[in-house]
Amino acid sequence: MKIRKKISLLLMACVTAAGLLAGCGLNGEDSQKNTEGFASTQSGKGRFVESEITLPENIRIVNAVGKSKGEELTLIGGDGDKKLFLAHSNDQGKTWSQTKLGQLDNYVSAVNGEDGSAVVFGYNKKSGMQRVAADGKITKVNLPLPEYKGSGNDTENFITSAVFAGNKLFVTDLNWVVYEVNPKTGEMREILQNISEDVTRLLAAGKTFGLVTDKGIQFVDAESGTLAENMQNDNVLQEAMNKVSESHNINSSSIAMTMGDSEDELYYVNHEGLFYHKIGGSTTEQLMNGELTSLGDRSIDFQALYKYDDKNYMVFAVDSQETRHCYRYTYDAEVSAVPENQITVYALEDTNALQQVITAYQKAYPDVVVKKTIGISGEDGVTAEDAVKSLNTEMLAGKGPDVLVLDGLPTESYKEKGVLADLSSYVKAADKKEGLFTNITDAYAGNGKIYQIPVRFYCTIVEGDQEVTDSGINLKDLEKYAKTLHSGQEKVFGNWGPLTTLGILYRADSASWKTKTGVDQEKLKQFLETAKTLYDADGYTEKDRITDEIANSFAEGSLIGMSTAAALFRLTGGGQIAVGSLTSVNDVQQLYGIESRYKGTFTLFDTKEHKAFVPFLSLGLAQKSADNKNAQAFIKMAISAKGQKQITEGFSINRTAFDVECKNSQESKMGSSASDGSYDISYEVKKISEKQQEKLTKMLERLDAPSWNDRVVWDLVLSEGKKYLQGTQSLEDTLSAIRKKVQLYEAE
């Protein structure tokens, strides 16, 4: 019996048990989404165990990979300095032979696993195609690529994706057309003319390949160059692919696939795990739970999946730091199906950064499984207030999670009720070992105790001309300055939506109007008046405003920095006032790149009373779990440099990790242009210099108070503030509504 069949039965038992236990949960459990998954199989044995294969010495960037039937691996990639190498391995990655190819114009590559050759396509039509033989010999091949058919007269067409399937080469271009290409002659033959969707990427899968389109994933038979009807008509497979499309941004390489020993067996990997489907079969079987491996990190992109046998699989992936990995998964029949120990981690909302910490922890502690519980899944209509009430009931009953992500939660209330453990010893130990930004941890200190530690943090900056930033902008300064500007060809603030406008200013200023008894009405009034001045400055109608989908600075679980967008807005005439969140080292690189080319500077938003930061992934330890060594280890791992190795969002609380992120900052070229020629911006993103890092460090060290990081209060302020900005509610009524609702909420 194949291993997948055994695991399928195990999963079936797990699902049945989960169904029987569902009615016995704690109050409010039905409103929470959790990843307990395989927890009911703890008495079972056998699961896939992850290890990592060392990639060839000179290859930091894997452009493409292939595998032959004889199990030879071929990689083509670079050293990060424009030099390409071709590498081969006949022993599943234990040893590699390499051939230096020199400097090639390389945007897209593909490897023909069958003969160990590769092709390389450049950044424009003139680059053509370079054919690389298995021995490294390079041949230039002319490519009769059609002209770009979209808007923009100066845009050149180029190859955007390429794969070998069934020993044939297939590509797609900027026109989203799919071609079969002769690698020797460059002859191009358009296929699939009846496909109406835009094809953004190709996925290799044996003698078939996948088309990633703007509507989902379709499959093509490489031999005929037509849609693979047996796969297209497989309802179970199509349903599985639709789930991938719905749960992930399919343009971010969130899936890889391969065919099995026969051409009617498909294996695919995504962030949920490893799956098997027999074409035409009635089920899709999960072979491995991604949450127990690096696959669960939703910020990684998948490059390739290969099967060696039922017990061994290999996955090539790229993490959020642009580091390439080759993970090997080997089935071990002796280990527990699920690690024998368990801790629970609660977060109001899920983020990629949280999963990255969990992944780092489970790698270091493979005998512990982390059950992640999310209060607001976005799938069941549960509000922040509903989720907080449910959590409060559990916490006050001495139940609930071991570790809490306190972002958005009523932390002060938890401290007063004694449900959080003191973490001051963790702070002292971590600061002594690796150094912390103690100005951030000190902001939470009281009576010698600290009840929460932000793993990361970010802040709000004002960007623009020197005259704007010299004095250190606060709300009153901002409103006064906005009234001196005129909205014409250059806008004052831009067409941000009401919630986005309020959200930008809330993060910058809420620390100054939070009091022990509620809200400082005068400061809240200034907040609303400034928001109204900026919102009305350019006279946009509601239909002309940018959507508020990123009002909370998150998109698909990732933290979005608004400072770069605001700076580009300023340069393109979209807004003379640029205010936004500075959320990462890369954000800083972007701003330095923009300003070195186009002038300007940035400074902290300064309320005069506070220089606020926003805690991100702020952790607390439940008092009931204060002696739980596994929960303690999670906190320690999260604030260590090792635990934050994969995180790029926010600034690290750990100075060692922060230094590494600055040192490893990547260089690139960026640009933005309008199809009508009204603007054309380009700039270089360079590594952070020592002087720039020193300046950034000093700025971060000035931060001294957290924003009012309570999601229910955030929702109340933004929902009432929106009415005021849109003119459906007076300022007085808005102030009164916020005051009453906040007081009622805090009294509960």
Automatic annotation (TrEMBL):
PROSITE patterns for the chain: PROKAR_LIPOPROTEIN
Signal peptide: 1-22
Keywords, sorted A to Z: Signal
Protein name: Maltose-binding periplasmic proteins/domains
The species this protein was found in: Roseburia faecis
